[in-house]
Amino acid sequence: MQSQDVAPRPAASRAQESVVDVEQAEAALVEHYPRLVRLAYLMLPSSLGRNRRVLTAHALTQRALPRGRASASLIPAQATGTGTVAGRERNPGYAYVRLQVVRTALEAGLPLRRRAWPKRSQLPPLLPRVWGLRLFPRSGGTDELALEQRLSALSGPARAAYVLRGLERLPDPVIRTLLDEAGVGDPGAALREADSVSAQQQALLLSPEYDPCSLHARPTDLVRRRQHTKAALAATAAVVVCGALLGLPGDAWGPDGAAAPSYARNPAAQAALDPGRLTTATATAWRATGRTDFTTWPARGDLVKDKALLRRALAVWARPGESVQVAVTLGTQAGPPPGPPQLLYAGEVDNLRVVLLHDGLRIARYAEPLDDPGMAALDLTRVDGATGAGASALVLGRVDGNVRYLTAPWVREAAVRDLAKADGGVRRLAPAKDGTTAPFASPAVRAGKCESWDVLQLTDAEGGTRLLSDLAEVIPAHLTVGRPSRAPARDASAAPEVWAPFACSLAAVRSQGVRSVNAWRFARQPLPDGSGTADWVCTRAETWRGAGTRAMTQFVTPVGAYVTAAADEVPACGPADPHVLAGGPWKSATGVSYLLAAGSKDTVSVELGGGASGSAQGNLLAVAVEEGARAELTGTLANGREISTLQPARAQ
Asked: Rounded distance, CA 42 to CA 162, Å?
């Protein structure tokens, strides 16, 4: 990494000057403290380590206050627009402390030089200090790891330019002025270097991975802290001797990459960590057994014989170290494998080495940068009972907003379909010989307005199709349609028009460990003014852990679609209770407000109470109401049972 000297000096072209006193700067620092600390953390080099980066970011921010009155350059409001951003830029206190944070963060990243006194920011901070604990932000996934690698390859000024673009939303002329005031010799070169990192990844800068104000704490070596000096020295010497012995040929394990030190060993644990004992399936196992689950996946990829890589993956799974970013799906156990797991894949994927392992209950995805095996990411996802669609594909990686899959051995064709367009075409993906697909846009990492939702369409050896959606997990969710029942639902490819208006609602269940999502069009209702018909659809997300289900009723008219109600952990709209009642407001072209309601087909009557009244025989109801009226809906089934909406409906 190239470094540039950073020294305060007058800017070539100043913005509007304003005088700042200590009280103004302190008020701005307190109000925007989390943002300023995040700025410092992102600008500091990753070589410092996560614990020191956290402490240094807090120290630099807390030392940003002036000693007396000082001048600050205000960024013109028209450069950043209006609203919250412009409000910060018009605040001279915020402009001053941000400039100090940028300047000292750049200084902290400079290498120490011989025969020169180090700057205060280059030394480990005396305060804040937490004795006996290591602090680090929440771990992210492979996307954050990839961005961290790209930022660490930039020079300090270029990293600062990228962060100011993505986090502060500053235009390039303003960034150039700010970097010039911070002492950067060539701000233009820093901006050009920052262009090498995709702007699509800027949304990741707001990830919890880069939030040094929301921290995890882990103890330092507790035993060593309790021992006397002689015992500590003896223990250190023993560790050094054991490490040297383990590095020798023979029965030694060799390097474990980013894994933490080994604290205990037993035969079962040793067997689970021995790459020579990994289990594999034959290429034709799925044909011979008739099983379509992960146990019949063969080991694929060009690195399946790389014992060193497999050893690192197994060691990190058992003992993830501080440099490992661990992501565990809800309801998934985070411990090591109980025995030798099954190898599914080992190969190079974009700029990473990726290993996929299966221990019968979980999928473990290990990823390490090609140029730095000392850093790694580990994702654990529960997949017990997965078969058929649930075992048809796994996510290999996500880079630059795209996702790449590894498909099951029984998959014959792969394609991409835009779920938000019922009549959209299907783009063919030709899987490679090892079952990997070409990358395509992932809706799981996209920010901003949702206008499309690309899903993976697979065709198996028997001609059956299935749609799978990336929901930010290792395993994609299976999309289905139809009335819920104990029997498997139809694949969404059988009726994509049902999903089209509600495809973007899948964003509500990202990163929740979702196994499948079913869309059930339970009613179709003529609109009161004769302008057309409306569909009532209930979507229900089922998870791998059983708990955490989410049901939503949605209403689609010729004008648009919206969610009318949502509830967690309810049996309605599911196999255990295939009944549903929903209601919502609707306004005609003439301005008349209605409350429309519909129940599933076995609903014999619907009644409206509360702030409005009305009733209807059958499963459909339309009542003219006043805007803002509160109403409660009750439906009666053919067997006499009463049902209600997922949550009370309200006319608007």
From this structure: 10
Specify the pLDDT at position 191: 95
Cβ–Cβ < 8 Å for 544, 329: yes
Of 92, 90, 91, 95, nearest to 78 (Cα)? 90
Short-list 442, 613, 592, 455, CA closest to 531: 592
Q: What is the pLDDT of residues 155-194, one digit of tens each?
A: 999 999 999 999 999 999 999 999 999 999 999 999 999 9
DSSP secondary structure code for residue 451 in this structure: -
E strand or H helix at 533, and its extent?
strand 533-543
- Is residue 500 within 8 A of residue 486, CB to CB? The reply is no
pLDDT computed for residue 531 by the predictor: 84
pTM, two decimal places: 0.62
pLDDT tens by residue, 12-27: 334 456 677 788 888 8
Q: Where are the alpha helices (DSSP H) in 195-250?
A: 222-226, 229-246
Helix (H/G/I), strand (E/B), else coil: 67 = coil
For 13, phi and psi rounded to 5 degrees? Answer: -135, 110
Q: In angstroms, rounded to a whole number, what is the distance separating the alpha carbons of residues 347 and 434?
A: 10
Give the phi and the psi of residue 453 in degrees, each rounded to 5.
-150, 95
For residue 447, report the phi and psi dihedrals to the nearest 5 degrees. Answer: -110, 165
Contact 57, 40 (CB under 8 A): yes
SS3 30: helix
> What is the C-alpha to C-alpha distance for residues 96 and 20, in angstroms, rounded to an integer?
8
Q: What is the pLDDT of residue 611?
A: 73
**In terms of Cα–Cα distance, which of 604, 598, 549, 597 is closest to 577?**
549
Closest alpha carbon to 384 in 545, 549, 576: 545
Query: Over 70: is that where the pLDDT of 361 sits?
Result: yes
d(CA 235, CA 237): 5
Residue 479: what residue type?
A: L
Strands (E), 442-513: 454-460, 465-469, 477-481, 490-491
The burial class, CB within 10 Å (0-12 / 13-18 / 19+), for 276 is exposed
The reply to whether omega before 648 is within 30° of 0 (cis) is no
445-500 pLDDT, tens per residue?
777 788 899 999 999 988 889 999 999 999 999 999 999 886 667 888 888 888 88
Of 194, 205, 123, nearest to 157 (Cα)? 194
Q: Is the pLDDT of residue 133 over 80?
A: no
In this prediction, residues 64-68 reach a mean pLDDT of 80
CA gap 356, 304 in Å, rounded: 10
Helix (H, G, I), strand (E, B) or coil at 463: coil
Q: From the centroid of its chain, how far is CA 446? A: 10
Share of the chain above pLDDT 90, in %: 45
Write out the two tokens for 271: 């067997």
Question: Phi/psi class of residue 472: alpha, beta or left (left: φ > 0; alpha: ψ in -120 to 50)?
Answer: left
Greatest pairwise CA separation for the chain in angstroms: 91
Q: Rounded distance, CA 635 to CA 121, Å?
A: 68
Contact assessment for residue 279 and residue 359, using Cβ atoms and an 8 Å cutoff: no
